[in-house]
Amino acid sequence: MRGSRGPRQPGGGKQIAGSRQQRRFARRHPEAAAKGYAGARSATGNPKRRTKSAVADLALQNPKSSRPDFRQGNGRGPRAASFEARLQHAPQDDEKPKHVAPTLMPTSVQNVAVTADENGMRVDRFFEARFPGLSFSHIQRVIRKGEVRVNGKRTQPKNRLEAGQTVRIPPLRLDAPKPRNGGSEADEKTRAFLKSITLYEDADVLVLNKPMGLAVQGGSGTTRHLDGMLDVMRDAHGQRPRLVHRLDKDTAGCLLVAKTRFAASALAKTFRSRSARKVYWALVAGVPKVQQGRISTFLAKEEREDESIMRIARHGDKGASHAVTYYAVVETAGPLLAWLSLKPVTGRTHQLRAHTAHIEHPIVGDPKYFSIENWALPGGMQNKLHLLARRIAVPHPRGGVIDVTAPLPPHMQQSWNLLGLDATRYDPIVDAPEE
């Protein structure tokens, strides 16, 4: 440790109990220093002592209007209810989203123009929308093999299309999907399951409470996943709900789904601009010495013999991306375990799992990143990943705010009960900066 500022991190990051935004604000607004805001400097230039619980800067008191404010309507006492869902139903208008009817599978090479309605759509989502019968793995394969071209050049699944661009579509061997009659027993069971895990729904948006252990998308050896289940919700035009973001298979909690192409496009822009606000809860080994802080590192994928993980990297390393997470200790169970609330600023693969392991407080039950030797799981707790996508707040595509909270999954509720943790405690992460 380097004093109270935490250890140096590869890539120049530090675990610190505050942020540069606080000090920058204090220099620009000296009147804030006189009021004692955390991180502000006095007129003599000497830094004021930080309070351990102070993470937010004054700028957070007036967030941008386009971004949801986690603190609005929450109690500020130590026992105030945490994260009550505030579902603000968005106004509906008479405008009906445009639909592009599914296209029959091409048997020869075709060149098609990107429509205005498809502007900003990812390449893989473009194929998913036009050819609903194609599997996720098949779409990824034809793109990566170079069979798909945009304006004559190779592309990547995540690249965004622009209206007027020409997309080369190779021959696709799959048959066009048959219309569902809506009456099969399997489909009815899937609909009932989706309904049972629905936290919020309107004409454009669906928020699901994803169970721990259920994959979001298909992959090698994965046949049961939420993306496939959404097929039973196709509308009369053949369009199906679309995933807006992802959760790891073993992470439970809020998963946002767009029911229309209009909503998918709007919500994709929200996530790209980082206007979505997400809070995660985790149970970690040990108790961080810095009760509230910011973790800033670079992450890069590392392929191992039987799996891939995200490693802490340095700036300039191949494939390295900057990742920022704010955290706060909500409650502890002696020196052995701590309940952390986490607010990711960026959305890197395994970001929270890699970051908590990096500060030497890995998430309980994490098979990839938990590596503390001779650490014994307390009796009565299940050895499953204790990570919950607790809350999501995003601007609704048609106005208003979607603000939804997920309950603790069964294995985490069992641990909370065993340790005597109170899920209604005030969560200090709502005061963390947004950048």
3D architecture notes:
The radius of gyration is 23 Å and the shape is globular. The chain has helices at about 20-30, 30-35, 125-130, 135-145, 185-195, 225-230, 260-270, 350-360, 410-420, and strands spanning about 110-115, 150, 155, 165-170, 200, 205-210, 240-245, 250-260, 275-285, 290-305, 310-315, 320-335, 335-345, 385-395, 400-405. α3 (about 125-130) crosses α4 (about 135-145). It contains nine helices and 15 strands. The two termini are about 25 Å apart. A hairpin with a 5-residue loop joins β14 (about 385-395) and β15 (about 400-405). Helix content is about 20%, strand content about 20%. Strands 5, 6, 7, 8, 9, 10, 11, 12, 13, 14 and 15 form an eleven-stranded mixed sheet that branches. The protein has a four-stranded antiparallel sheet with strand order 1-4-2-3, with no helix packed on it.
Secondary structure elements and pairings:
Blueprint: H1 20-28, H2 30-34, E1 110-113, H3 123-130, H4 136-144, E2 149-150, E3 153-154, E4 166-169, H5 185-196, E5 198-201, E6 205-210, H6 226-229, E7 242-243, E8 252-258, H7 261-272, E9 277-285, E10 292-303, E11 308-313, E12 321-333, E13 337-344, H8 351-358, E14 387-395, E15 401-405, H9 410-419
Helix pairs in contact: 3-4
